[in-house]
Structure prediction request, 90 residues.
Amino acid sequence: MGLFNFHLPKNNKFDYTPRYYDERKERLEKLKKEHENPQKAEIEERIRGKIKRHQRPNIFMQTGFRFIIILAVLLVLTYLILSYFEIPLW
Prediction:
Protein backbone atom coordinates (compact mmCIF):
# COMPACT_ATOMS: atom_id res chain seq x y z
CA MET A 1 0.00 0.00 0.00
CA GLY A 2 3.03 2.29 0.18
CA LEU A 3 2.82 2.77 -3.58
CA PHE A 4 -0.65 4.35 -3.39
CA ASN A 5 -0.01 6.59 -0.41
CA PHE A 6 -1.17 10.00 -1.65
CA HIS A 7 -0.71 13.19 0.32
CA LEU A 8 -3.91 15.21 0.10
CA PRO A 9 -3.62 18.90 1.02
CA LYS A 10 -5.82 20.27 3.79
CA ASN A 11 -8.70 22.57 2.91
CA ASN A 12 -7.97 26.28 2.94
CA LYS A 13 -9.80 28.26 5.59
CA PHE A 14 -10.81 31.81 4.82
CA ASP A 15 -11.81 34.50 7.27
CA TYR A 16 -14.78 36.10 5.58
CA THR A 17 -16.66 38.76 7.45
CA PRO A 18 -19.63 40.06 5.46
CA ARG A 19 -20.07 43.80 5.27
CA TYR A 20 -23.48 45.36 5.60
CA TYR A 21 -24.61 48.66 4.16
CA ASP A 22 -26.61 50.75 6.58
CA GLU A 23 -28.40 53.42 4.60
CA ARG A 24 -29.62 55.26 7.70
CA LYS A 25 -26.11 55.44 9.15
CA GLU A 26 -24.75 56.69 5.82
CA ARG A 27 -27.39 59.44 5.69
CA LEU A 28 -26.65 60.50 9.28
CA GLU A 29 -22.91 60.73 8.60
CA LYS A 30 -23.56 62.82 5.50
CA LEU A 31 -25.80 65.19 7.48
CA LYS A 32 -23.18 65.48 10.22
CA LYS A 33 -20.52 66.42 7.67
CA GLU A 34 -22.79 69.02 6.10
CA HIS A 35 -23.60 70.63 9.44
CA GLU A 36 -20.01 70.64 10.67
CA ASN A 37 -18.75 72.66 7.75
CA PRO A 38 -21.25 73.10 4.88
CA GLN A 39 -18.66 74.59 2.55
CA LYS A 40 -16.30 71.65 3.02
CA ALA A 41 -18.95 69.13 1.93
CA GLU A 42 -19.76 71.20 -1.17
CA ILE A 43 -16.09 71.48 -2.10
CA GLU A 44 -15.58 67.71 -1.69
CA GLU A 45 -18.59 66.91 -3.90
CA ARG A 46 -17.43 69.38 -6.54
CA ILE A 47 -13.93 67.87 -6.59
CA ARG A 48 -15.31 64.32 -6.86
CA GLY A 49 -17.53 65.39 -9.75
CA LYS A 50 -14.63 66.99 -11.59
CA ILE A 51 -12.43 63.93 -11.13
CA LYS A 52 -15.14 61.60 -12.45
CA ARG A 53 -15.80 63.81 -15.47
CA HIS A 54 -12.13 64.05 -16.43
CA GLN A 55 -11.21 60.38 -16.08
CA ARG A 56 -13.53 58.77 -18.63
CA PRO A 57 -12.88 60.87 -21.75
CA ASN A 58 -9.11 60.55 -21.38
CA ILE A 59 -9.27 56.76 -21.20
CA PHE A 60 -11.60 56.60 -24.20
CA MET A 61 -9.45 58.96 -26.25
CA GLN A 62 -6.27 57.01 -25.55
CA THR A 63 -7.72 53.59 -26.38
CA GLY A 64 -9.55 54.87 -29.47
CA PHE A 65 -6.47 56.63 -30.79
CA ARG A 66 -4.29 53.59 -30.11
CA PHE A 67 -6.77 51.35 -31.95
CA ILE A 68 -6.77 53.62 -35.03
CA ILE A 69 -2.95 53.70 -35.14
CA ILE A 70 -2.70 49.89 -34.87
CA LEU A 71 -5.36 49.44 -37.55
CA ALA A 72 -3.55 51.84 -39.92
CA VAL A 73 -0.21 50.08 -39.41
CA LEU A 74 -1.78 46.67 -40.07
CA LEU A 75 -3.47 47.93 -43.24
CA VAL A 76 -0.22 49.39 -44.56
CA LEU A 77 1.68 46.17 -43.78
CA THR A 78 -1.00 44.08 -45.50
CA TYR A 79 -0.86 46.30 -48.58
CA LEU A 80 2.95 46.10 -48.73
CA ILE A 81 2.96 42.30 -48.38
CA LEU A 82 0.29 41.87 -51.06
CA SER A 83 2.07 44.23 -53.45
CA TYR A 84 5.43 42.50 -52.85
CA PHE A 85 4.03 39.09 -53.80
CA GLU A 86 2.07 40.67 -56.68
CA ILE A 87 -1.28 39.40 -55.45
CA PRO A 88 -4.16 41.35 -57.09
CA LEU A 89 -6.17 43.36 -54.61
CA TRP A 90 -9.45 43.15 -56.58
Notes: The mean pLDDT is 79. The chain has two helices and no strands. Residues 38-84 form the longest helix (47 residues). The two ends are 72 Å apart (CA to CA).
